Amino acid sequence: MLRHVIAPVRFFSQVSNEIIRHPRLSSDAVRLLTWQLSLPQEADEPLSRTAQRAGIKKVAFIRAKQQLKAEGYVHEWRQQDERGRWVTRQLVSSVPLSAEEAAQVRDGDRDLAPTGGVPAAGEPTGRAVGRHPLNTPEENTSHQPEPGGDACRAVADLHLVDERLRVPRGMLQQLAALAAQWLAGGHTVEDVRTAVRQGLPAPGLRIHRPGGLVRHLLREVPPPPAPPAEVPTPRVALMRECAGSHTQPRLFRPVTDETHCGECRQTRAESPLRAPVGKALVALRGAAAARAAMRG
Fold first, then answer.
1. Do 221 and 188 meet the contact criterion of CB atoms below 8 Å apart?
2. Are 215 and 178 spatial neighbours (Cβ–Cβ below 8 Å)?
3. CB proximity list for 173: less than 8 A, separation 6 or greater
4. Whole-angstrom Cα distance, residue 216 to residue 66?
5. What's this model's pTM, rounded to 2 decimal places?
6. Cα Rg for the chain, rounded, in angstroms?
7. Sequence-separated (6 or more) residues with CB below 8 Å from residue 65
8. Across the 296 residues of the chain, what is the mean pLDDT of every consecutive 10-residue run?
9. Using CA atoms, how far apart are residues 250 and 239, in angstroms rounded to an integer?
């Protein structure tokens, strides 16, 4: 392989080989990152505008941005401005930063030492993180606030679900945003963890990119489980055994607190009237029999 390289004398940017040869960054992600790092220090250009200028389509831009966030090169924060509108602040770094380190840079501590592995080739330059091009644009968005405590709790301890799920800290905010969509859709924290647990490979198989796997499993929010159908109360549960005298136990449905069925209540209601009528009939029959005997 022959190479003919002429070092530029002006209008160039220094980019580490670690970025150019990164095994987990696509060509769009590398182009997006190097373009941002080539901008002047005072430039205020959001990533979406850079993608448009670089000819990166929407879907490819979303994928490239997710890769950069997963590897710690891009960080985002959502907050309200003085008018109450939600805006997104973005930080682009030439070295991977954890969430805590990125927050320090955002808050003005730009003397942090570079973090991350040794570059693929070449010697470290020793330049501080704060001296690299820093972009923190504020653009109007329709996003909701940062994920709440439940969403963060759903993904923070995934290694307790499975020891193989050691998610990089730089991805926790992204995964928490996905979990927040599940919670907003009517799911619970346990539903999120169950979905992750059910999507894991067989025990014993290695998970090379646990953060990417969790992101894949949570990318689509299924409809929440339907509430259990109300079981109608059996009719027999509303019935009561009659306290009257029956050959076999008789059940009836009481209206209030009655203890006898309708037939027994009717018999009991009529019994005071039947006794006098019966005695009168016996008396009449006895008198007629006596008269017939005297005639004979």
1. no
2. yes
3. 69, 76, 99, 146, 147
4. 12
5. 0.39
6. 41
7. 29, 32, 47, 74
8. 70 83 92 90 87 91 92 87 79 89 77 44 43 43 54 82 84 87 87 88 84 87 75 75 83 83 80 52 60 66
9. 10
